[in-house]
Write a structure and sequence with these properties.
The protein has 113 residues and is α+β, with helices and mostly antiparallel strands. The chain has one domain: hypothetical protein PF0899 fold (2-Layer Sandwich), CATH 3.30.2320.80. The protein contains two helices and six strands. The model has no long low-confidence stretch (mean pLDDT 96).
Length: 113
């Protein structure tokens, strides 16, 4: 389950930021995760809560915002919505698509005290 590895990396980044800023506690973490990022959001929540035990982020609220998937369709020469990496172009039915949004994952905000 790669969600645990991601949760641990997020926690390391959050703890490093909290230490650098002299924070006592992390109140909230906002993540942006693309719809095409191949990760299970609820599994990530569970893994983060497990990884954060006994850390400064143990009680932090985890706000996860989904970034919609988008692709560039080569035959249409258009940017189209893409619900999954295996979906065809909604305009022409082609599978010649290049994902341009929705594959990212980033820590957007960390609220500390």
């Amino acid at each position: 389950m790669h969600e645990m590895a991601l949760a641990e990396e997020i926690l390391q980044l959050v703890q490093s930021t909290a230490r650098r800023e002299g924070a006592r506690e992390v109140k909230a973490i906002t993540l942006e995760i693309g719809a095409l990022a191949a990760l299970e959001v609820e599994a990530l929540r569970f893994c983060f809560s497990s990884a954060a035990r006994n850390s400064c982020a143990e009680n932090a609220a985890l706000d996860i915002r989904e970034i919609p998937g988008e692709a560039w369709c080569l035959p249409c020469a258009a940017r189209v919505p893409l619900p999954s990496l295996s979906a065809p172009c909604p305009r022409c039915g082609s599978y010649q698509l290049q994902a341009v949004a929705g594959t990212e994952m980033r820590v957007k905000e960390i609220e500390i005290v």
